[in-house]
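Hi V.,

You were right to ask for the full record rather than a summary. Here it is.
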Amino acid sequence: MTITAIILTYNEALHIERAIRSIQPFTDQICVVDSGSTDGTTEIARRLGAEVHTHAFVNQAKQFQWALDTLVIRGDWVLRLDADEIIEPDLAREIADQLPLLSGEVVGVNLKRKHIFMDRWVRFGGRYPLVMLRLWRHGHGRIEDRWMDEHMVVWGGHTVTFDGGFADHNLNDLSYFVDKHNKYATREAIEVLNQRLGLFGRDEGLNAHSASFQASSKRWVKERIYNRIPFTVSATLYFLWRYIFQLGFLDGRSGLVYHFLQGFWYRFLVGAKLMELERAVAHLDDKAAICAELSRLTGHKLVAQSAPVANPAVNQDRLAPRL
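Predicted structure:
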């Protein structure tokens, strides 16, 4: 039972060796897809035996799907790993021992990810475990085509969940964290605006059968309930839910920093950016024109659907600022 790992990178010299070494014991092929690193990331990866490929970056989903469609993948199974993530030794052993024993009806494996922030495990606030599909049979999985919150989805069978340690442990400082989430907020605002206006296709591949029940249920709550509440209310309620009712306060002082930034500031920023983008396109009723203006404002290349250009959903009532 062979495994191919795919890692997307851009200036990940701080993390890439740790990531590769964590999966070397059980993988047979490691493919690094880089988007123009200048810090020695690719040299480190090659030194450790990884195949290095270069491709221009549009977004996470398109980059990873390019890898699935283009690379010569030799493994029976494919593992998706971010450069700042680690497969811990107990999970490495579990994968090596249990994967060959799975029946042919199993096409995907969910992993339980923990988040390490300021070198401490965030155990509460609903942040553990985050159950994510990261390992699947070659030819039975793809990544959703979304600007944000993209998930792997599988078909042709069912999924199981492994219990071993899987950690997201970024070693950069708070400035990096804030900058990264600022970029995430722009992408998520684009995704929510597309949900409201139908500017371009939305990938709806995620469900309890194609990935994890946790991931699909959280997506449902966010898109059907959370995104319809004024962000000044929803961000506040979400933080209180995480910090008080989901016991986030037990994560200590560093946990307060994390839950406030990721559970309130980030959610509030997404809402504020969405309000800004809505105002900027409120006078437009043509999908192509809206996408062109959003592309100018965000720096992301957005292309409207080829369907009729008139968009009756774009009007002053629909785009009124949500305060």
